[in-house]
Amino acid sequence: MQKEYRARVSMRNPVHFLALGFGSGLVPFMPGTFGSLAAVPLIYFSANLPVALFITFTLVASVVGIYLCGKTADDMQVHDHGSIVWDEVAGMFISFLFVPITAPTLLIGFLLFRLFDILKPWPIGVVDKRMHGGTGIMLDDIIAGIMTCVCMHLVIHLWPAVLLIF
């Protein structure tokens, strides 16, 4: 992160702390990947939560993320700076809705989510380019999470043997 942007955020500010993925977005290379990785232990430890609570947390993370990411982008004076990674955290949670949390599913889900987030196939790329503010920052990763979730369910139900490879 360039110094002038870094000076505009504080890890002591809870909004910035969350938007920067608990600090994972400050890694100077591949911040989106590190933001996604920051979600993995949270997802793993959420595996035993009742489904309704997992869904509630996912929805709250997604909706509150609009404010967190928008406010932090405004404070940085840069739209969707790479260090803002709460959208990846929320997208990763969406990826695992109704998916059993195991080491293989975490790995496959992480890889699929990163693939969608990096390549930005339709409609992710369209949303990424046309929407702005907190909603724009969050929505492309929400869609990537939905696409990942659909793929995860296809893998689990149509090709379950792939889960035994890992």
TrEMBL record:
Pathway it works in: Phospholipid metabolism; phosphatidylglycerol biosynthesis; phosphatidylglycerol from CDP-diacylglycerol: step 2/2
The organism's place on the tree of life at top rank: Bacteria
Gene Ontology CC, one term: plasma membrane
Keywords in alphabetical order: Cell inner membrane, Cell membrane, Hydrolase, Lipid degradation, Lipid metabolism, Magnesium, Membrane, Metal-binding, Phospholipid degradation, Phospholipid metabolism, Transmembrane, Transmembrane helix
EC number from the UniProt entry: 3.1.3.27
Main location class: membrane
The UniProt record lists the keyword Translocase: no
Cofactor: Mg(2+)
Catalyzed reaction equations: a 1,2-diacyl-sn-glycero-3-phospho-(1'-sn-glycero-3'-phosphate) + H2O = a 1,2-diacyl-sn-glycero-3-phospho-(1'-sn-glycerol) + phosphate
Subcellular location: Cell inner membrane
Membrane disposition: Multi-pass membrane protein
Cross-referenced InterPro entries: PgpA (IPR026037), PgpA-like_sf (IPR036681), YutG/PgpA (IPR007686)
Pfam entry (one): PgpA
TM region positions: 49-69, 89-113, 142-165
Gene Ontology BP annotations: phosphatidylglycerol biosynthetic process; phospholipid catabolic process
Top EC class, one word: hydrolase
Domain named YutG/PgpA: residues: 18-155
GO MF, one example: phosphatidylglycerophosphatase activity
Annotated function: Lipid phosphatase which dephosphorylates phosphatidylglycerophosphate (PGP) to phosphatidylglycerol (PG).
Designated name of the protein: Phosphatidylglycerophosphatase A
